[in-house]
Amino acid sequence: MTIEQIKEKTLYGDYTLLGQVMGIKAPAAKMRFLRGDEIAKETLIRIIENREALIEEFQKKTNKAS
């Protein structure tokens, strides 16, 4: 994923979680990502992918229950 693709998929709270994972404050985590830090980029990609997978899994379960 490119930085632009990641930015498009980033939601409110993603940088906060990124900061918590990295052990730094959210603005510092965001700046590291924007400066091209590979660890920040890989972590943010995982946050996005995990969120999307969780939403998809929940929606499938909800649709089956209906």
Low-confidence stretches: none
* Major β-sheet profile: none
Task: Give helix and strand order, one letter per element, not per position.
Answer: HHHH
Proportion of residues in β-strands: under 5%
Counting H and I runs of at least 4 residues, what is the number of helices?
A: 4
Q: Indicate the radius of gyration in whole angstroms.
A: 14 Å
Share of helix among residues?
over 70%
**Which class do the helix and strand fractions yield?**
mainly alpha
| Terminal CA distance | 35 Å
Q: What is the count of β-strands?
A: 0
Question: pLDDT average, as an integer?
Answer: 95
Broad shape: elongated
How would you describe this structure to a colleague?
This protein is mainly α and 66 residues long. It is built from four helices and no strands. It has helices at 3-9, 14-22, 26-34, 38-65. The radius of gyration is 14 Å and the shape is elongated. The protein starts with a helix and ends with a helix. The mean pLDDT is 95.
Summarize this structure briefly.
About 80% of the residues lie in helices and about 0% in strands. The chain is mostly helical.
Strand-helix topology:
Layout lengths: L2 H7 L4 H9 L3 H9 L3 H28 L1
Helix pairs in contact: 2-3, 2-4, 3-4
Tag the structure with descriptive keywords.
mainly alpha, 66 residues, 4 helices
